[in-house]
Design brief:
The complex is a heterodimer. By secondary structure, chain A is mainly alpha-helical. Chain A has one domain: Orthogonal Bundle (Arp2/3 complex 21 kDa subunit ARPC3). Chain A contains eight helices and no strands. Chain B is mainly alpha-helical. Chain B has two domains: 1-138 and 248-283, no CATH class; 148-236, no CATH class. Chain B has helices spanning 20-36, 40-56, 65-84, 86-89, 107-133, 136-145, 150-179, 197-220, 228-233, 240-245, 250-273, and strands at 2-3, 8-9, 96-100, 103-106. In chain B, the strands form two sheets. Chain B has a two-stranded antiparallel ribbon. In chain B, strand 1 (2-3) and strand 2 form a beta hairpin. Chain B is globular. The termini of chain B are far apart. The chains are: A mainly alpha, B mainly alpha. The interface between A and B is large, with 62 and 64 residues.
Chain lengths: 194, 283
């Protein structure tokens, strides 16, 4: 008779709500602390949490990655709600690409080896933000906020504003907090997503 | 006093007698109004009405006054960006109202900035009013009445509850850092972001601890969680909460119908008749 593994879904559901709440607070206050204008912040530390959430909490973290900006973009970036909705594809990439790559290439999120560091920096910090910034600024153009001519400027602002907090805070949190999370019931270990 | 999502409200406040469904309808409908109104004056007016309702509810303003201060920061963001990025926002007219060195400040861009700011003003005032008069139990009962699945409704309620909890934690950590001689307000603005880690790491640790504690509390009350998406799509059932807390009086029905009627007038006036007073007159 096979033994059924009871997963701590209650705690993870609670975590999902808590993570969304935290990201809203960090996204809002982070954006307001260094605005560079034009609906783009020069400093968006929530990016670090957006990428890390999926790595630690699988589908729960990934789902929160594209839900919390619906609120924090309105409060912190002064974006209309329909534009925040149009940014969902960008946030899906920013929240999902890192975890998919780490799982596919079996990298360690405690950043122990050069391969782990390279994947985190190249995919988690640079590539996911480059794609996210392109999708996001394209959404700005398509929703009529900016013109195609202004897109490269906004892309640069978004990309820099997201990348450097991800490199500094993301690396710090991954190194410092990951062992604590992995010992908790909230950690969703690959290949499991829930 | 009754604890709400963002503040405290006297138990004999008029808004404690309002149905949970009326409050939920306000949340949904009031959030739609500013998106269909381009006239900044109307949006400012709806924001002021929301603020006056907050006063009428006798909400403890000390707990939410810091959010009203955000309007200054938002004004800075929106108007500075409208001035600096004005060329892409100016529209076809390209009328320059003032030159600041090499920067042309376009009339169209500033009109756009005013429109965006008035929308945010109305939305934030409405959101603060709703957060200041709604309790977790009321929202839960209203969602239950709509037969929203248990996982989804508990997630929605907890997100709003946690938002205010972590907002409080953020300020507690700030004060703790200040007592250790780290005051961000005394640090040059370009150095502030680097110090954000002093807030971020404790906040992340607090989130994990709170989630574990809440999960244990939920399980001790016989709550059995499921996978996120499974629980989200399941149809909810009424529990004792609806029977105990839910009520819908005639005045609530009238209020909900009035809010729907206002939205209908805005939509028909804007898109069918093209009434000028819903448009931005500053272009």
């Amino acid at each position: 008779m096979s033994e059924e593994v009871v997963k701590p879904y209650s705690a993870r559901l609670s975590l999902f709500a808590a993570w969304v709440g935290l990201c809203i607070v960090v996204g809002t206050y982070g954006s307001l602390s260094l605005p560079i204008g034009g609906y783009v912040s020069g400093f968006w530390p929530a990016m670090a949490l957006q990428a890390i959430g999926g790595l630690w909490f699988g589908g729960w973290g990934f789902a929160s990655a594209f839900l919390f900006p619906l609120v924090s973009d309105v409060l912190g970036e002064a974006l209309p709600f329909y534009v925040a909705v149009a940014l969902i594809p960008a946030n899906i990439v920013q929240g999902g690409l890192t975890v998919v790559t780490f799982r596919a290439l079996k990298a360690d999120m405690r950043l122990k080896s050069a391969k782990d560091w390279a994947l985190w920096l190249v995919v988690g910090c640079v590539l996911s933000n480059a794609i996210g910034a392109w999708l996001g600024t394209t959404a700005f153009v398509l929703t009529g906020l900016i013109t195609w001519e202004a897109q490269p400027l906004f892309f640069t602002g978004w990309f820099i504003g997201n990348t450097w907090p991800a490199i500094i805070f993301g690396s710090l949190i991954l190194k410092a907090v990951t062992p604590f999370v992995q010992r908790s019931r909230l950690y969703v270990e690959a290949p499991d997503w829930w | 006093m009754q604890r709400t999502f963002l503040s405290y409200i006297p138990v004999d406040s008029i808004f404690m007698k309002v149905s949970a469904s009326t409050k939920l309808s306000f949340f949904f409908l009031f959030n739609f109004y500013p998106f269909f109104i381009s006239n900044p004056l109307l949006n400012f007016l709806s924001g002021i009405i929301a603020f006056l309702l907050t006063l009428r509810a006798r909400v403890n303003l000390r707990t939410i006054s810091k959010y009203y201060k955000l309007f200054l920061t938002l004004a800075f963001i929106i108007f500075v960006s409208s001035a600096f990025f004005g060329e892409s926002l100016a529209g076809p007219s390209r009328e320059v109202i003032v030159r600041l060195g090499p920067i042309n400040v376009y009339k169209g861009a500033m009109a756009f900035g005013l429109e965006a700011y008035s929308r945010v003003f109305a939305l934030v005032c409405g959101m603060l009013f709703w957060l200041a008069i709604t309790t977790g139990t009321e929202l839960f009962a209203a969602l239950e009445k709509l037969r929203i699945g248990y996982n989804l409704r508990i997630s929605i309620v907890m997100i709003f509850r946690y938002f205010s909890v972590f907002d409080g934690d953020y300020h507690v950590i700030r004060e703790a850092e200040k007592s250790r001689a780290l005051d961000l307000s005394t640090i040059p603005i370009y150095k502030r972001p680097l110090h954000f880690a002093y807030y971020l790491v404790p906040l992340v640790m607090l989130v994990i601890k709170r989630a574990l504690e809440t999960g244990a509390a939920m399980e001790s009350r016989a709550f059995k969680g499921t996978k996120l998406y499974k629980g989200m799509i399941s149809k909810g059932k009424e529990t004792y909460l609806t029977k105990k807390y839910y009520r819908l009086e005639r005045v609530d029905v009238l209020a909900i119908i009035s809010m729907i009627a206002i939205l209908a007038v805005i939509l028909v006036g804007r898109f069918y008749f093209g009434w000028a007073w819903f448009m931005n007159p500053f272009y």
